[in-house]
């Protein structure tokens, strides 16, 4: 699976269409809200420039 993040640059806006999945991280944490694992099953990913947002 190619990494789409290689096509972006720091500070660029990103538009993602797909499904967001959140799950708790196991192990000791300060509280249940401070750590979560995020997964994105993306149908499409678009990068804008650093100076202009994605359309």
Q: How would you describe this structure to a colleague?
A:
By secondary structure, this protein is mainly beta. It is built from no helices and two strands. Strands 1-2 form a two-stranded antiparallel sheet.
Task: Give short descriptive properties of this protein.
2 strands; mainly beta; 0% helix; 55 residues
Q: How far from one another are the termini?
A: 26 Å
Q: Give the overall pLDDT as a whole number.
A: 75
Question: What structural class do helix, strand and pairing data support?
Answer: mainly beta
The topology string of helices and strands comes to EE
Low-pLDDT ranges? none
Q: What's the arrangement of strands in the largest beta sheet?
A: 1-2
What's the helix count? 0
Spatial shape: elongated
Strand content: 35-45%
Report the biggest beta sheet as strand number plus sense, adding barrel if it closes. 2 strands, antiparallel
Can you count the beta strands?
A: 2
- Report Rg: 15 Å
Helix content: under 10%
């Amino acid at each position: 699976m190619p990494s789409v993040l290689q096509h972006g640059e720091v500070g660029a806006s990103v538009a993602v269409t797909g499904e967001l999945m959140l799950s708790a991280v196991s192990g000791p944490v300060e509280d249940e809200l401070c750590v979560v694992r995020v997964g994105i099953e993306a149908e499409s990913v678009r990068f804008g420039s650093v100076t202009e947002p994605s359309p």
